[in-house]
């Protein structure tokens, strides 16, 4: 295989390169299922770390990934997806108060709070489960949407809140965009799977807010807010590498938002050159370009820094695998839409970095965290918790950007009308 060709978007060599990566990732994750169905956190070599909590967001992401694996005929994928869906329907579900626990400890005790982030992923998992025709997935999706509508979605604001206590009696004052970002992803999946366009409209309302904040902040998206949705630009300044609430701008999220905006725009307006779509395409480009300029190869070594301050100066130089995955996704979508060479060059650079640095060729997985010199570390993300970002990055470049990835794969097989 020609080395340069395997990094080039649109080539058979690149598709084969990514297919190999995907198959290795899916094989790596086979040990995630606990006896009750909730997902073990995976270690460096894929061995489950049974002393860690089994969290709802990881279980949901693994259910989603192995539903996709079943569409692609990866061995045992449907069995694994069914087990994770069972975990969401049983041990992770709060029968008394409704909704889903944050997770379970190694001893089976509940992790307190009800997280918007986790509930968004339950919706995504259930949507993919419906496509995979898994028993109970329709009921799971119905329940998840009802709980989300009751407790997380605010119709007046057009945004979702973040965290309740376990009993759904006290709402935390924090508001955040990470949960809203994955809500957009989940809502687009629901619209694609069920045909209920209410959820696509809601996704658009969230996007409009995000773009207003980003435009006012030189296209660096504020992540954290007070309960009245005033940005809290100093949040976690004393703990800047928090895995879910890092201080400052998170370029990887700017890139991820960019792709989701493109997906919503294309699915809503169909034609990327239409007058209605054009402002959103332009805004998505601004988000992507800002993030790449701030974060990619900016500190003397290849890779994308985790966070920057509000002037674009790197704060946390560590490289997280998910930021590379989203860069692969978004550059490919832009290239598919525009055909512009700059996106093909970006994609090739990301492919080379994946191959030479981030892909753990010994285990078939991706290193989840590297330091600024690209040495493997685990201060924020020890081990290799799940497959979601990496597996999607091996697929999104090759399917319709108008559809959520599970629906796009099903439609490509002529199964989804």
What can you see in these coordinates?
- This protein is mainly α.
- Helices cover 49% and strands 8% of the residues.
- The chain has helices spanning 3-6, 12-28, 56-71, 77-89, 116-131, 137-151, 177-194, 198-215, 251-269, 278-295, 321-338, 341-358, 388-393, 405-412; strands spanning 41-42, 48-49, 54-55, 103-104, 110-111, 114-115, 153-154, 159-160, 163-164, 175-176, 224-225, 307-308, 314-316, 319-320, 359-360, 365-366, 369-370.
- The strands form eight sheets. Strands 3-4-5 form a three-stranded antiparallel sheet. A two-stranded antiparallel ribbon has the order 1-2.
- A hairpin with a 5-residue loop joins strand 1 and strand 2.
- Helix 5 packs antiparallel against helix 6 (137-151) and helix 7 (177-194) packs parallel to helix 9 (251-269).
- It starts with a helix and ends in a 5-residue tail after the last helix.
């Amino acid at each position: 295989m020609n080395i340069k060709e395997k990094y080039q978007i649109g080539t058979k060599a690149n598709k084969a390169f990514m297919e190999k990566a995907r198959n290795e990732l899916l094989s790596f994750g086979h040990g995630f299922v606990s006896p009750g169905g909730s997902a073990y956190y995976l270690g460096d070599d894929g061995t489950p770390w049974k002393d860690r909590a089994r969290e709802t967001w990881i279980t949901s992401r693994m259910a989603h990934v192995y539903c996709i694996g079943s569409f692609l005929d990866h061995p045992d994928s449907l069995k694994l997806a069914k087990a994770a869906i069972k975990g969401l329907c049983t041990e992770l579900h709060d029968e008394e108060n409704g909704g889903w626990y944050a997770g379970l400890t190694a001893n089976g005790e509940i992790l307190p709070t009800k997280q918007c982030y986790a509930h968004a992923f339950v919706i995504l998992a259930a949507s993919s489960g419906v496509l995979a025709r898994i028993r109970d997935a329709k009921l799971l999706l119905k329940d998840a949407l009802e709980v989300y509508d009751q407790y997380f979605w605010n119709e007046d604001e057009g945004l979702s809140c973040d965290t309740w206590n376990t009993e759904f009696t006290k709402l935390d004052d924090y508001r955040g965009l990470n949960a809203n970002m994955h809500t957009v992803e989940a809502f687009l999946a629901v619209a694609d799977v069920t045909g209920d366009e209410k959820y696509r409209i809601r996704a658009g309302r969230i996007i409009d807010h995000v773009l207003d904040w980003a435009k006012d902040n030189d296209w660096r998206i504020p992540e954290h807010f007070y309960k009245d949705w005033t940005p809290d630009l100093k949040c976690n300044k004393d703990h800047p590498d928090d895995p879910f609430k890092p201080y400052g701008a998170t370029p990887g999220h700017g890139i991820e938002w960019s792709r989701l905006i493109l997906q919503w725009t294309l699915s809503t307006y169909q034609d990327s050159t239409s007058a209605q779509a054009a402002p959103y395409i332009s805004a998505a480009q601004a988000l992507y370009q800002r993030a790449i300029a701030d974060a990619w190869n900016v500190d003397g070594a290849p890779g994308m820094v985790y966070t920057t301050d509000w002037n674009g100066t790197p704060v946390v130089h560590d490289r997280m695998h998910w930021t590379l995955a989203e860069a692969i996704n978004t550059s490919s979508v832009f290239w598919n839409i525009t055909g512009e060479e700059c996106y093909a060059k970006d994609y090739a650079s990301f492919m080379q970095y994946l191959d030479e640095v981030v892909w753990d060729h010994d285990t078939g997985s991706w290193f989840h965290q590297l330091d600024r010199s690209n040495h493997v570390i685990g201060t924020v993300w020890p081990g290799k918790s799940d497959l979601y970002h990496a597996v999607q990055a091996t697929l999104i470049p090759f399917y319709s950007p108008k559809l959520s990835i599970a629906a796009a794969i099903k439609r490509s097989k002529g199964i989804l009308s």
